[in-house]
Amino acid sequence: MKHPLLVRRALLLAASCLLLQHGGSVLAAQGEEAAPIVGTRPALNTLTPQPVADALRDAASGSSSAASSASVSASSSAEVQGNVAELMQMIQDTKLSELRTTYNGSYGASLFFYPRELTYYVALFQNKHFWRVIKSADAGRAEAIYAGFAQQTAQLAEVEIRRTQLQAQKLYIEDVIALSEDRAKRLQADLEVARTQQAKVNDYQRQTQDEAAALREEKERAQAQLRQVQGQVMLLQRQMEMGLPGQK
Q: Model-level pTM?
């Protein structure tokens, strides 16, 4: 009983050393990879094992209750990593049949079947990294695990999907704001043109009214002058015809 425990501890210690040596580069590479668009499906042969740091973090998070549960968690983590490597190799060798796959956001769950050994592999992954892989020869257990993984992807993707929806709504609102601002600028420009033209029309109206008033006064003066001239003409005409026959 002691030897398996020592082996498990040795495996965990080796993984810890590997983390210390390569953790920085792994995390940097993981940060550079952009998350896929929600609903897209990466090719299964492009999936890779989850980084060592994530595997150790998962093992540590599942073993915080007691030291005995910590060793069991470490053992399970080592087994999962072994299943991941085995599954990756079998996918590359095209030995598996993909029976079911569920995608929710960037999370996915797949159920594979190895006909030669009547064995099932159930995988949980996120982005292009395998997260957990369970191997079982029991079809019912494999289906149950797959159903659980599929439900887990739905729960995990809720925040991601909501973020995508909110981002789309934000961009839509920003587009509406931009269109509204452009419309407001156009209306403001039209309003300024209208105001400028209205001021010109008002000036023209005042000028026209002043000119009309001046012309009316000139007309009245001209009419008075015409009446005066006509009176003078009539007076001169009578004077010229005075004493002539027919003159009354």
A: 0.49
